[in-house]
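Objective 1b. Sequence-to-structure analysis of Dihydrofolate reductase family protein.
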Amino acid sequence: MATYTFDVFSSLDGFGSATDEWTGYWGKQGPELLEHRADLFGEEQLMVFGPDTYRMFSGFFLSGEEFGDIWTRRMSAMRKVVVSRSMTPDEPLSWPNTTLMRGDAVEVVARLKEESDIPLRSHGSLRMNHALMAAGLVDRVQVTIFPVITGITGRAPVFGGAADFDLDLLETRTLDGRTEQLVYAPQLHSPRPR
């Protein structure tokens, strides 16, 4: 069975993005982070996106915005699946190498994990990945924490609305002396009987 990694960027206070001038890496990307990301995306993987994240990334592609980092160019070239119940079959899939799989994300990803001969990875797609974690389909949660607090401008709480999980730490890495990458194996938390 293929492994599935939920890969997400976060501020220290748990937001996936921010308003104003802070975008992407919050201006804190360094050479070690970018090289490590390029290595992560150097192996073949099947990228899995929810419809909103897919539209955002494909919008970058359509606008002619350069995927300036090696890892984003590699991600752009990989095979991609967008999982959606709301997208219509005739909605254009403008990002190359993309397939639409209509249906419930839990059912689609369970099938992909069984059928795929390469690892699965999702970058972003928060709501979809919350549901996949709750269903026990996420093998690794990879959180890259940037050295910023976005108490005023923070948007998209990375785990806001997710269930409760116990996490087993599998790997930790400091990049450029300031950015932390943490990799966990999640397990749905069972509350104590009361």
